[in-house]
């Protein structure tokens, strides 16, 4: 069956309180947070749950749909055993035994499940220095800026793209962004404000934009 994502008052009612979310166990936090972000309140990637991609692993798809996403949306809680079941399947597919006990980078998890296991086409097309790269998510890399004390996601994405010389080749169907983090001992920012909308106008390659001086179509860009 299919349970729609939670929205507005329903999301607050179902997801708030004790014993809600995805239960952590044995360094699963990276996967728990990624799965919650992707599926609890959004249907953008529901094709991962149903669509028969070429080379798609049906057992992984059914575990993801029936044991994790549907219970999360229906009751607001997913037990650790369900996530461990998924981790065991990913261990077999990825030929990496540490997926069941070690902490991984969310990007490594997303690349494995989307590319190797489900066979989904890359979600992002980026260009830097004339070279194009396809990927499934974007991790924010940037130098510490004293002026940004409590930044929002819009500011972080713009600063990161600018400092890395990156542009989006096309408007992505889904823009997964990994916030900057540096383990348990050092955090670049104590808090990051979620941007409920993301303006990618200035991030798009060769996108028509307005001149800030005369209002006509701009012909030059000053970083």
Automatic annotation (TrEMBL):
- InterPro entries this protein is in? Papain-like_cys_pep_sf, Peptidase_C19_UCH, USP_CS
Record localization: Cytoplasm, Cytoskeleton, Spindle
Q: Classify the source by domain of life.
A: Eukaryota
Q: What is the lineage of its organism?
A: Eukaryota, Metazoa, Chordata, Craniata, Vertebrata
One Gene Ontology BP term is: protein deubiquitination
> What Pfam families does the record tag this protein with?
UCH (PF00443)
Example GO molecular function: cysteine-type deubiquitinase activity
Q: Which GO terms describe its cellular component?
A: microtubule; spindle
Keyword Cytoplasm among record annotations: yes
Q: Chief location of this protein?
A: cytoplasm
Location of the Peptidase C19 ubiquitin carboxyl-terminal hydrolase domain: 21-198
Which keywords describe this protein according to UniProt? Answer: Cytoplasm, Hydrolase, Microtubule
Gene designation per UniProt? Cyld
This one is known as CYLD hydrolase
Q: Which SUPFAM superfamilies match?
A: Cysteine proteinases
């Amino acid at each position: 069956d299919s349970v729609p994502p939670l929205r507005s008052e329903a999301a607050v009612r179902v997801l708030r309180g004790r014993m809600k979310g995805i239960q952590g166990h044995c360094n699963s936090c990276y996967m728990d947070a990624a799965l919650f972000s992707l599926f609890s309140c959004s249907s953008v990637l529901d094709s991962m749950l149903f669509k028969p991609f070429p080379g798609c692993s049906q057992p992984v798809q059914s575990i993801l749909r029936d044991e994790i996403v549907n219970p999360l949306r229906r009751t607001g809680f997913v037990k650790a055993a369900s996530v461990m079941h998924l981790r065991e399947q990913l261990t077999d597919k990825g030929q990496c035994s540490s997926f069941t006990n070690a902490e991984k980078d969310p990007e490594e998890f997303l690349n494995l499940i989307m590319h190797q296991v489900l066979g989904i086409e890359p979600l992002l097309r980026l260009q830097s220095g004339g070279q194009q790269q396809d990927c499934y998510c974007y991790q924010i890399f940037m130098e510490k800026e004293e002026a940004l004390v409590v930044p929002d996601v819009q500011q972080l994405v713009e600063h990161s793209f600018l400092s890395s010389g990156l542009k989006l080749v096309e408007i992505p169907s889904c823009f997964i962004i990994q916030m900057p983090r540096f383990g348990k001992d050092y955090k670049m920012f104590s808090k990051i404000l979620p941007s409920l909308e993301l303006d990618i106008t200035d991030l798009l390659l060769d996108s028509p934009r307005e001149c800030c001086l005369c209002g006509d179509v701009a012909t030059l860009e000053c970083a």
